[in-house]
Amino acid sequence: MKIEILEDNGNVLRFTLKDATNAYANALRRESIGNIPTFAIDTVTIYENSSSMFDEYIAHRIGLIPISTPAKGYSAKDEVLFSLDADGPKTVYSKDITSSDKEVKVSNGAIPVIKLAEGQKIRLDGKAVLGIGSKHAKFQPGLVTYDQKADGVFEFYVESFGQMPPRQIINKALGAIEEQAEALIAKAKKL
Where are the beta strands (DSSP E) in the chain? Predict the structure, then answer.
């Protein structure tokens, strides 16, 4: 297989995959969007909410905010605490949500969370955990598509949601496919 980079601007990666089968191209796409561990706020505890929005609506919005996911150093058991304490009148943005870990933080601070009127307040904590996109869409690291240009030639488009660079998404997916293939080979040898 050969990979030729067409575009890599930090948020978008376009590349051509040559000498590959349809099954391999689809496995790479599915692994990239469904099985790459990323952080997302999974549990929200709301202590005070005098806004006009329901607690569940706010928790859902906060859960979908992309959280940066470092390449190494974290396991599925790790939790990172996020906090929000805001008074109106103001528009609360994702940058107002603070993290207990300087490496795991909101990756895009310009996402509006809620608009608070005069006298309204919101105070909450959220726990971010590692998860995969096949469990919930909030854990998907990005958008990955491909177009088959010719027999064995696929043009991939990878757009990161902000948790990690698109190149890291593809590298992790390729590593996972390799690990799965090695495990399958080892299992077949035991039969």
Answer: 2-8, 12-18, 38-49, 79-87, 90-93, 98-99, 112-116, 121-131, 142-150, 153-160
Longest alpha-carbon distance in the chain: 70
For 76, which DSSP code? T
Summarised one tens digit per residue, pLDDT across range 61-77 is 999 999 999 988 899 89
Q: Are 50 and 120 in contact (CB under 8 A)?
A: yes
Residue 146 in tokens: 């491909």
Residue 42 has pLDDT above 90, yes or no: yes
Angstrom distance (rounded) from CA 45 to CA 123:
9
Report the pLDDT value the prediction gives residue 100, as an integer from 0 to 100. 97
Q: What is the dihedral of CA 55, 61, 62, 68, to 10 degrees?
A: 170
What ranges in 8-156 are assigned the alpha helix state H?
Answer: 22-34, 55-63
Task: Tell me if residue 175 falls in helix, strand or coil.
Answer: helix
Domains, the chain, ranges and CATH?
Answer: 2-36+141-190 (3.30.1360.10), 39-132 (2.170.120.12)
What is the b/e burial string over 155-182, where b = at least 16 CB atoms within 10 angstroms of the residue's CB?
bbbbebbbbbbbebbbebbeebbeeeee
C-alpha 27/C-alpha 18 separation (Å) is 15
pLDDT in tens, 46-105: 999 999 999 999 999 999 999 999 988 899 899 999 999 999 999 999 999 999 999 999
